[in-house]
Amino acid sequence: MFPTIQWKDGCVVMIDQRKLPGDEVYLECRDYEQVAQAIETMVIRGAPAIGVAVAYGLALGMSRQSPGEDSEREFERIYRRLERTRPTARNLFWALEEMKADWDRTRGSELSDRRQSLLKMAQRIDVEDVETCRRIGAWGKSLIKSGQTILTHCNAGALATAGYGTALGVVRAAFAEYGNIRVYADETRPLLQGARLTCWELEKDGIPVVQITDNMAGWFMQKGEISVVVTGADRITANGDTANKIGTYSVAVLARENGIPFYIAAPMNTIDFSLEQGDQIPIEERSPDEVRKVGACAISPEKVAVRNPAFDVTPAKFIHAIITEFGIAYPPFDVSLQDLKNKA
After folding, report:
1. Which CATH architecture has domain 140-343?
2. Strands (E), 35-189
3. Other residues' Cβ atoms within 10 Å of the Cβ of residue 271
4. Are 197 and 224 in contact (CB under 8 A)?
5. Per-residue pLDDT tens digits for 51-72
6. In principle, which of 40, 73, 114, 272 could form an S-S bond with 106, CB 3.0–4.6 Å?
7. Is this prediction's pTM over 0.90?
């Protein structure tokens, strides 16, 4: 498995996902501002991977603190900068909260010890994310049958996590179990994460994958070529409403119309129990140029008005189950997710 993100020689090193599948390039971030910009510019993306990135970014920022600076003020400044990078992914805020708890716990210790503790916490978040994804895969494969075709939207694989993946974790576990699983991957406009990233990952693993455009999903469902849909998530509310890459809601509606199970695969730290329902989730709007262009090629008039929400919210009523590392939650999600939280 290729490394999505890692701590190496005092730097945060991450694969530049903007350049895939053409070039496999790794970017070295030598300060927290470079980590923040990498998140904002989609060098790294995917809710769990962003969580790992901000954890490492905070550890990196504090390791470079200048002598004589107020460490508490510096920690707060770095924390707030990383907090502003992207608003929707719950894992980002969860990871920052974990890092702050560690920082507060070590108050009164030597600064060098506090810095080392932050790094260890970031590394723990990194390692535990991979194990979490493997556990999600182990639970999720029970929902997949031999010979089935899985439709997925966007990329919820190793690239979106510290390794292995959430939705693709389910795919990988099912493929290892049965060997005859096939995937249909929506290309996922506007940044084509399904075409560029999901197809790249699955090809590297030798898992059969077919790329389709986003507007083909309903047709293939209607023809009986899709058995089940599995996607990741960026934030899930207490009632099961789920924010994920724009276009997920459309896929969920089509799946319901065609009697196809629609599953979400996500770690428990993606669930925001402070929010009751999906309309409370902050939805990021990104640059209009992501829609006006494909790469450097303009596909619409330069000044045409554009809307570019990065995510949409799938209401819980369209979701058959939510797969976590602690088990599978079924409706009513306000009860089942709380039960899983209590087991965590």
Report:
1. 3-Layer(aba) Sandwich (3.40)
2. 149-152, 182-186
3. 27
4. no
5. 999 999 999 999 987 766 799 9
6. 114
7. yes
